[in-house]
Amino acid sequence: MESKSLQAKNQLYFGLIAIVLGILFVLQYDKIVDALILIIGVASIVAGIVLFISFFVRTKGVANKWKQLPVTAPLALLLGILLVVNPALWKEVFYIILGIVLILIAILQFVSLNKINKSGTPVPWGYLVFPLLILVVGIVMFFNQNADWLVWVFGVCCIVYGISELFVYFALLSGGRGSKKATSTVSMKTPKKK
Fold first, then answer.
1. What distances in angstroms separate CA 173 from CA 7, 18, 155, one per listed residue?
2. CB contact at 8 A, 160 and 132
3. How far apart, in whole angstroms, are the C-alpha atoms of residue 44 and residue 73?
4. Where are the beta strands (DSSP E) in the chain?
5. Measured distance between the N- and C-terminal CA atoms of the chain, rounded to whole angstroms
6. What is d(CA 135, CA 140) in angstroms, rounded to the nearest whole number?
7. Average model confidence (pLDDT) for the chain?
8. pTM of the model
């Protein structure tokens, strides 16, 4: 029972965070990608510097210390510098990553709805529209990286995902007490053989 309560809380948190991020993406769609790329670049530079400092502290007085240098230190530093120097160059890569994230979110939504259905709570057909919409937008975003409007669409999808997660939260709270006689629900169970 505690696991179900924890899962419900996770759904609530994911839903609220997705709604807030979605609103941010919708309101600032023309500036958010450049800002995120810069933030990732600065964080990567900081991570590279920290890795270098820890390397020098750890290998002080060690012979052949350069053989022990973690590859991630110079790579993080180099990636951070590239992101900060030219964020526009990385926009297409960012759109591809957003497309992959949307596809994964849609798959997770289908899995969550299937779990709810298997727990005895009927899932109305309308709730399958949300993950299907997110999946389609993710595929479009993955293959078309030239439009800033896709960031706005990503924000809308985050809001839709957040609302869908809130549905999952409330469905988990109800604990399958819904009516099993609903006519407009998805039946994902296989019939038993006699």
1. 10, 20, 27
2. no
3. 9
4. 123-124, 185-186
5. 33
6. 9
7. 79
8. 0.56
